[in-house]
Design a protein that fits this description.
Blueprint (H helix, E strand, L loop, with lengths): L7 H20 L3 H18 L5 H16 L6 H20 L8 H21 L1 E2 L2 E2 L1
């Protein structure tokens, strides 16, 4: 990826490696190292801009979501991570609005947004539009 920065597949694969290794580190309880790798993955995925694949977008949103999970429940930082995850996917969904017919990637994005919005409701104590 460093030697061939114009080959987006290399950067995408490297970002995926950082993301996947972060998941393993999280499972092992190495949260600081996991967060560091997630931040690296996010930086790489954001550099891909328009060349992102559906997997890249889901990883980008997933990295923000996992970072939120590493924060205390009502943390403002956690809420910001979840909002970033949701916004990345909503932006892509909006850009696909003119695409007719079924679209597996769009359906995955919509499902991911619904899950993130539920996490936001759970973390902010909002149910059915009213605060608890």
């Amino acid at each position: 990826a460093a030697e061939n920065p114009l080959v987006t597949d290399y950067l995408s694969a490297l970002a995926a490696t950082y993301y996947e290794s972060a998941l393993v580190l999280q499972d092992l309880g190495a949260e600081a190292e996991a967060a560091e790798r997630l931040h690296t993955s996010i930086t790489m995925l954001e550099r891909l801009a328009q060349e992102r694949t559906p997997d890249d977008l889901l990883r980008l949103a997933g990295a923000h979501t996992i970072l939120a999970e590493l924060e205390p429940d009502n943390s403002g930082v956690a809420i910001e991570y979840l909002q970033k995850a949701r916004d990345v996917l909503l932006e892509k969904i909006r850009s696909m609005a003119g695409d007719p017919g079924p679209n597996k990637a769009r359906d995955e994005y919509v499902t991911a947004v619904e899950q993130i919005e539920q996490m936001l409701r759970d973390r902010t104590g909002v149910k059915d539009g009213t605060a608890t």
